[in-house]
Amino acid sequence: MTYPIPLLEPVVLNEIVADIRPPENLVLSNALPRIPITTSYYRWDILRNSRTIASVNVPNAEATLVDRMGRAQGAASLVYTREKKTFEPTTTMWLREVGTISNIQNAEQAVMREIQDLNLRVDNLVEWCCWQALQGSLSFPNSESVVVDPINYQIPASNFVHPSTSWATATPSQIVSDIEAWMRIVQRNARIPLTDAWLTSKTLQRIFNAFAVNAEAGGYLLTDTMRTAYFNSGMQTLPGFMGLTWHVVEGQYDANYDNAAIEGDFSLFLPDDKVIFTNLSVGDPMKIVEGPTADFDNSQGAIGKFMKTWTQEDPSARYALLESRFLPVITRPDQILIVPDVTATS
To answer: What is the pLDDT of residue 184?
Structure first.
């Protein structure tokens, strides 16, 4: 007798997938709002605030007609992923004659691990796409004859900047001057202040090194607690430095989309020596839109992730499939500033 495995029921599967949150190290996947849409293609407005001031008028006179906000548009097809796993009875005995409650529980645990792995692959893809968007563009290489058109997120050329002196050798005052100049660019273009900096621990180390070992600094911007943590354990933190929140991003992925991809060769979502400065809290500047499934078996019009299972008779096997449609969208590119390499000057 073959016992059913509840986790393989479609309704249960989709409820489980809907409740799984991305791991904490996938910071953008967790932080960005998700917006459901009903199409596989999305068009969005790119908004830029006016830098002009209102004109003076007099009572009882006609109002001065002014132009609408600076506006362009972006458009792209949603990213689509569809993957499946197979459970073969010859290698997973729990698919045949499970037999006992204990074995059924073991079967559910085995199925759950595979479902979580499929789901994590999708979450990793979403995170990768979001970091690519924050760096200015999203494109995919040829993969089994599937080509996705590259997306340009229209971050202004003036928002790609370089340090005046390589941060590998820069003094603290040079680093401070660089950041001050960059913050002014966003203040001028977007009319709002920068609030956050995103970088790896290796990149942050360059700032610490400048303040910790440079004679000019004398550690004047390092508190006693920061210096102690730095020298004793290598811990790095810059709370409030330059009025920004500093986020250390160490998430990694298997380099499937690298030119020289090698299985097991891991890459960082955000490369070393690159810094991204943002204000993602004002004006809904970045989000993830999620679109409908492309599967006939989805009778409920699922948005985002959809999962199903089915059996194959010859050879005997059970498949589990997960698909998703999504797209990172940036509506206010002026609020993003990118330093491609802190060790390379302009």
So the answer is: 96
Region of 9 on the Ramachandran plot (φ > 0 left; ψ -120 to 50 alpha; else beta): beta
What CATH class does 157-283+333-339 carry? alpha beta
Q: What is the pTM of this model?
A: 0.83
Architecture in CATH for domain 6-48+72-150+287-328 = Super Roll (3.15)
Q: Is 203 exposed, middle or buried (0-12, 13-18, 19+ CB in 10 A)?
A: buried
**Which string of DSSP letters, residue by residue, matches 153-217?**
----GGGB---SS-TTT--HHHHHHHHHHHHHHHHHHHSS---EEEE-HHHHHHHHHHHHH-TTT
Separation between Cα atoms, residue 4 and residue 72, nearest integer Å: 54
- Judge if the upstream peptide bond of residue 141 is cis by omega within 30 degrees of 0: no
pLDDT range class, residue 239, cuts 50, 70, 90: low
The tens digit of pLDDT for each residue in 31-72 reads 999 999 999 899 998 887 766 778 788 888 888 877 766 568
Tokens standing for residue 306? 């959809």
pLDDT 10s digits, 161-192: 999 999 999 988 899 999 999 999 999 989 99
